[in-house]
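Hey, I was hoping to borrow your eyes for a little while. For a while now I've been wondering how a particular protein folds. The fold is given in discrete form, as structure tokens running alongside the sequence. Could you read through the record and tell me how the tokens relate to the sequence? Take your time with it, there's no hurry, and the full record follows here:
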Amino acid sequence: MTSDITLFVNPTAGRGRGAHAAQPAAQALRDAGFSVRTLLGHDAEDALRRAREAVEAGTGALVAVGGDGMISLALQAVAGTRTPLGAIAVGTGNDFARTLGLPVRDPAAAARVTAELLKDTGGHAMDLGRITGAGTSRWFGTVLASGFDSRVNDRGNRMRLPAGRFKYDLAILAELASFRPVPYRLTLDDGRVVETDATLVAVGNGTSYGGGMRICAEARTDDGLLDVTVVGPCSRATLIKVFPRVYRGTHLDHPAVTTYRVRSLTLDAPGITGYADGEPLGHLPLAVECVPGALRVLAPPAPPSPLPR
């Protein structure tokens, strides 16, 4: 392992927290004996190009400082390589870090965890989802959202205030006024075709999106499978009643919810945009697959599952 690592920084994450987080994160890594190079880009495309150059040059780790959008960008540079990814989560949602049990909005603590893992095990392998379609091929670590949740995401991204999960709570209430279930067609890896009207369909490599909404609460990042949560047609009253349960992950036993566990699927619905790790992908249809061990991540290993898989 080389002691030279790259700090991949989004200075605008979390209303400027990314810029403020870079200094204590870098100091903690240097205190642990690492040589730290900070990488910025003029825009997302330039930042990704530079991150890929750092990986190709043999950096010991790519450590993303920012929110889930920055993690998503970093994944495109390190997925399928031997370069481990670290996460200093200081964004709005931070669902990648939440899924992996990493510190949130504490850059020094997250950097210390990163340094300890680099020195000890070098991290562990985790699965990633890979999406093709809408003119894109993209990796994701947490959840692919579509339907009501993607429209909420779109609205939430346009809102300046409030921050964190409360932004998504308000966006949900705003979208409730006009949303109607849409016809979905899911083609599962065993050949089954599921045609159903749905409020939303979420595909989880990880458990949560939107700042801790555990939409795919039983998903694991080490089982080679994707968890699919389908919420059927719901009245506004039902959605409002069930919504608080999503944060606890107890919504999965509601009669309106159906779940599947697959290695791959194709997702289609008219006029619906997909989001993955909070980033827009384009309109459905999209093909999604789980790629086991596609990423080496600097996070504690997942505990054994208490549930049969």
